[in-house]
Specification:
Elements: E1 21-23, E2 28-30, H1 37-46, H2 48-52, E3 55-59, E4 66-70
Antiparallel strand pairs: 1-2, 3-4
Length: 74
């Protein structure tokens, strides 16, 4: 009997930086990166619903590019 079954969807034992990564069901995915703040605002202005929910561009410390997200108060 072989016991070498490996679950490829196993959650990693670490928690990546949430400002750069987003959690999917069984994996992590890098957020969409924009080269400039203007590019991020241009995308955000195309979807007014996100602006109404409080989403805004921010500079990522991991990749030094711009992402779009919400401000979480801790």
């Amino acid at each position: 009997m072989r016991n070498n079954h490996h679950n490829p969807n196993k959650v990693p034992p670490f928690k990546p930086a949430p400002e750069h990564w987003t959690k999917k069901v069984h994996s992590w995915k890098a957020k969409v990166a924009y080269e400039t703040e203007d590019d991020a605002w241009e995308f955000l202005n195309q979807i007014p619903r996100l602006k109404a929910l409080g989403w805004h561009p921010y500079l990522c410390k991991v990749c030094s590019k711009w992402h779009i997200g919400r401000l979480h108060n801790k």
